[in-house]
Structure prediction request, 301 residues.
Amino acid sequence: MATNTELLQTSGAPAVRPQERRDVLRARRGRYAAVTLAYLTLIVIGVSSILPLLWMVSTSLKTTTALYVFPPQLIPDEPTLANYERFFRQDGWLFIRNSVIVSLSVTVIVTVTSAMAGYAFAKIPFPGRQAVFMSMLGGLMIPFEVILIPLFVLIVRLHLADDYLGIILPMCASPFGIFVMRNFLYSMPNDLLDAARVDGATEFGIFWRIVMPLSRPALAALATIVFLTSWSAFIWPLIASSSPETRTLPVAVSMSKQLGFSANYGMMMAAATVTFVPALAIYLAFQRYFVQGITMSGLKG
Prediction:
């Protein structure tokens, strides 16, 4: 009976040499090994990233005695919400309110002003537009620590220290937001805007009725980034606030000694969990718009 190689040669098909077959199998094994190694690496990175968060939540549900049990328990035998109750009794709701006020105010102001500035840089020709835009981008290269002292002196002279406005206003200047919106709006067809001008629409009407609805993906991405940044902001709220009435959650957690739970790690982790959960919820809710807006804005990792 003829072998497979003889049949292939008889039919005119090229014969597969044993060496070539071994090379193909070796190449496949190499690809499988590379893919397996990549997945294992991603799993290790993912576990190492999630484990501290799980430990934070686990610690917040433990009693003081359970914190010192050896070996440590990731899932406590008797979970309790006592740490959360104590945190909310010690001005926890006040700190949450302050963080919500600051974060929402900064998000709304930065999103609207960045969209307006981005529209001007992308669609309204004026002398020196490119020079002004490049000068504005230069602000991205200035570390915030450089302008920290001048900002503090300014808000003190304006009598805005330890006030919501003193915390919010310095966080509203966002060259990054203008850059994102300008890149997004630059690709918008000019014919659409010209048609609206021919119909008698004002420049603000074009911006509000046409540009803003079409910019929802970029606006959602920018709003998500700004909210997460302002929610977790620490340096400026720490400096600008000096009383619990204006103190935000990250600052309150860092000043645990003044809150009276420096030795209660369970309560500290409860406060950290309360700080983390809203940011995670916002990101998960707007993840689709975030990825879409970043892609359409031309920002790449």
